[in-house]
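=== RUN LOG ===
request id: a7f3
mode: sequence -> structure
chains: 1
length: 475
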Amino acid sequence: MILKVGISGKRYIKKGEEIIVAEKIKQHLGALLKKYNTSQLIGYTGLAIGADTIFAKVVTEVFKQPLHVVLPFERREYEKDFNDDDLKTLKSILDNTKVVGTITAKIPLTSEERNEAYFAAGKYIVDSCDETLFVWDELMPEGRGGTAEVIGYYSEKKGTSDVFYIKTSPAREDPLNSQIERGYGQANKKALKFRDSYKKVWRSALLLGWVAVLIFSVNTAFPSEIEFLHWLAVGLEFLSVGIVYFLISRAKKRNFHGKYLKERIKAEKYRILRCYYHSNAPVNITSLNAKNESTLSETVKKINDSSSNAKYKSNWYANYVIKGLVEDQKQYHENKIKEIGTKQDRYERIKSVIKWSLFINITLHFIASSNYFFFRWAEFYPVKLTVFLNILLPASYAAIEGILYLQDWEVLKKHSQSVQKSLSDCEGPLSVDMEDAGCCNKQSELLNRISIIMLTDNENWIAAFENKSNYPTML
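=== RESULT ===
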């Protein structure tokens, strides 16, 4: 088999990044050859300056494989898009490679015709190859035919948003995108911090509470004749309970859980707003424009201004972005369902072992006591062990129940399954005609629908926890 690999990438590659990009292209091509179990490939490229040229050199000089060139229009016209230094590079490669396609023999008279030819060349490469490699700065397309739009076409053709690309430094600043990314990063960082603090509290409280019961059960069932050890055990028991009280009081005062929920919702809103911005869709979901969150409101206003003033909107790219949001969210819930299934089953098994151990212990104690009472036989089951287990096992069972109560995995699992189904229902409308005049409105309506599903999911998720009792009851 001869593997066909195409390239679509940015022309601007920051100085110093060329070597890094070349190395990553080399690694990816090597991985593809291994994946397809072949040693032969043909590189397909439009041979623009930047990523295309780097790709051409890696294919021909590193892998010693042939290169096929696809030109958007005839060579002499194409050469006008290069400066003197870049033109030398272009000619040196073209003179030693095969031009397998010229999209149009017609000389483009307008920038629109020129960009359309570039986009057609990108589609030709995607359609002709087994795999396509992208070098992208993650910025929105400024016009027809850019790398971002070809990614959108590739995503639609492959039926997935899981598109591999090599990330490069952006050629221009995008303040609004940076603001959205920064808002998400800050909210997500705070959410993780408060979540970890909250988890440490209830885990520590459950553990220390169980340790206090363990000390009490040992001290009761196996009292030490050494008075110091007895009082040491009592002291450790009270210390454990005191620490639990301190941790719970501190957690309630600092509101770890409430702040975690708040920051998580904010981070999710920024994720959704990023999708609106990159889709060039207006934001008209009320809950995304929270008046008590000035930064979110300001971001929404800027996105709407950007959408109304946009010079170009790529339906291909918008679909890629929306599809990515849906697939990421579905994958998140799929992982959550799998994780919950494993944890829930494990803790249920532990509960079952504790329950049966307690039943067996009580049964043996009853039989032993009955034999001694009626027949005066020596007790074959130690009383001290019975007392120890009768104290410790119920406390252990309660601790496991506390974990299950705090996590509420079954409720979360049902939420995830429901959201997965709702998001799956949205995937059908994503398969639309990208060149249709009404495509833009359909995408906007669909994005609103997806946003409502995600925001409702978050509200249900919060309600599942806020309807619980307060910390002392839970712990």
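=== NOTES ===
DSSP finds 15 helices and six strands in the chain.
The longest strand covers residues 2-9.
=== END ===
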